[in-house]
Amino acid sequence: MTAMAYEPMATDKESLLDFFLSLDTPEGFRAELIEGDIVVTPPTDGDHEDYLGVVNEQVYGESATPMRISGYKGLVLSSSGDHPEDHVIPDATIAPRSLRLFRGAPPWMPSDGVAMVVEVTSTKPSNDREGKRRAYARASIPLYLLIDRDKSTVTLFSDPSAGDYVGNITVPFGKPVPLPAPFSFDLDTSEFL
Questions:
Q1: C-alpha pair distances (Å), 141 with each of 53, 85, 100, 159
Q2: Mean pLDDT of the region 107-117
Q3: CB of 153 closer than 8 Å to CB of 51
Q4: Residues 70, 100: contact at Cβ < 8 Å?
Q5: Is residue 106 over pLDDT 80?
Q6: CA 167 from chain center: how many Å?
Q7: β-pairing, 92-96 with 153-161?
């Protein structure tokens, strides 16, 4: 991930947001606004997509509540004081099927009703470990699943409070991750090895 240089004036939150929303990225690239930084991400590699496929298959097949999964759905999250609202594109956004959350949604939708977001680390893992984690917690997204390829771990963040997650469980690849309700199953990570 690459942060683009843009220096807004001291109180120029609207100009930064306008600049971000007007970006025209190359095909396959994603632009996000996270804690006041514009982050442009190149297309993902096959391993990245394979990890997501493993999660998606289990969510569809094992979840106690039927779910819908959207890959790369734009979310508008709560602002963080000095910065404009975060505009993020999770690798996967998961919501109960009964909510029909994605039907008719605009390109950048609010996160109300999202049960879990999933990120797989890529070119700038610190962004997934820190900035996005805090952004998802500020928006009160109940669960954040981070698949950290560099560390060969999976972390489930839970209980968002005061701008971060209070709970987290980290397991090495190969160990199960207990997903609470509305999922209510253990995510098998053995295919990540």
A1: 21, 15, 17, 9
A2: 97
A3: no
A4: no
A5: yes
A6: 17
A7: unpaired
